[in-house]
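Retro notes, item 3 of 5
We never archived the inputs for the arginine complex last cycle. Fixing that now. Sequence and ligand:
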Amino acid sequence: MHKDKFKEQFARATAAAFRKIYPDIFVTVGDSRVFNENFIYENLETPRDPKMGRFALPVFKFALLLKDKPPLIASNIAPAAMWFFEENNIEPLISIHAAGGFLNAKTDFKILAKDTLQTVLTKGDKFGNSDIGRNRKLLVEYSSPNIAKPFGIGHLRSTVIGHSLRRIFKKLDYDVVGINYPGDWGTQFGKMIVAYHRWGNKDTLENEPVKKLLELYVRFHTEAEHDDDLNEEARKAFRKLENGDPETVSLWEHFKAISNEEFNLVYSTLGIEFDEVIGESFFNDKMEAVIERLEKAGLTAVSQGALVVKLNDPNLPPCLLKKSDGATLYVTRDLAGLIYRWEKYRFYESLYVVGTAQSDYFKQALGVIEMMEEAEQLSPEARMTGRVKHIDFGWVKFEGKSMSTRRGKLVFLKDVIDQAVTLARKKIKEKNPDLKAVEETARMIGVGAVMYSQLSVRRQKDINFIWDEVLNFEGETGPYLQYTHARLCSLLRIYNDDGRRLVDYSLLDKEEEHRVVELLADFPETVTEAARLYDPYPVASYLIRLAGAFNRVYQRKDEAGRIDKIISADKELSWARIALVRAVQTVLKEGLYLLGLKAPEEM
Ligand code: ARG
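Structure as it came back at the time:
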């Protein structure tokens, strides 16, 4: 965990003060760890109003414990903590003030500025790195679209969140393996094969094959409503596939090739990478061993001809391993996959970035694993239980509408990206008619808008994708961040400074400038917070705050109402401000990278 040295100093001084002023709390609580430095550090908050201080301890939360009124606690502790510096001959980096039920800490700006800006400028894109993940193997599964179905906007969210987590954890030195697990097996292939034989032929799949496959799939479902034979036929076709019938297998291969071409196009457009791509079908020959293992552990039962595992949790339905006709299921392959990944990697943690709709499903699968490991009385090190996490996320609506593959109500991601790029191109031409690399920039912005839209709220929340919102250059969007980055780069171009000179950071004495420096100092903790929550959102919202704070510096007016320019006749001042610009540009670029967005230098 990255530790902020200002917060550390605050924690040390106030812990000593608490010990002095409230000596009996340790007796009362019976656990001397309660008010120690770590406890205080972990309870620090960021004040709503930055003027109140850079961080604060909400002492009112501990009033009951300390048996004192919150404002009294605060006004007792503040001077005692400051006295601690005096007494121990420590040069204070902060000043501590009582304000109602809070202890607010203001940082000594000169020290904070020098410390932060120098660190950012020397570390560059490594600012915020940490080694907390050293020697920890972390698996992240994301994307996992289904073969023979279009890559919908639903899979986009998994892709964007997972890919960003991969980068965030790498920054913290985790040994990350990004995994794509395409759905290339299951009874739906029986349906596709029947639909293809009935209503399609080779020519059907000549142009826009993915859309044609979807049409076949949708037609199957509408016709199956009044044609009972279809479902039976589909079951037979799938059995043929399972038995390796060459003609059926080659049709399946053809579907796979069509889909993969489309998926790979999406990935390269979005700049998404994986370390491993292993689809569901890989586990076909690995399921029998899992079933045997579960049987041996005494966990299986036969229910109406089907093989099931009854879970300990009474709220969960039994986990179905094999249907009465012998067909295996999605979960059977996932169980084989869980075991396979554990044996292959012995991971520290393994994440599955999959929508909330599959929450109960993952509870079932992980419940089965837990029961199995328990029944086998494995040693703690041999168990994956507790290390596997379903990283769920909310629904994605498109312009207020939900989507469904079966009914063919679907927005194609490819179309969304094309539209985003078209709109971005139009906007860029309006804003900057002289820009040379229009195509490349439009692509970065369009893609950036689509990707940021998936990260703009906490992952558990639903998203409604609205064109006017995601492409708004002034809103909380990807293009806004990218535009701010380009603006920073153009300032650096004008100044053409190598950044290597002695700068007097105390010249950055405007409130707006202080705010930017404080935010820069918060970046490392923001990254660890994102990792702790398994959610890129803290980074995404942080960047909006940083860009906003910088834009307030950029647009600041002096007393006479004139824009107070970054670069002015005052050389020393310009140097200091350019150092600030360079630091913001560095952090913004790295932050965008962590989210998976490109940072254009001109737009
Ligand atoms: N292909 C699945 C779907 O689209 C998602 C797979 C999620 N990963 C897993 N290991 N089950 O619903």
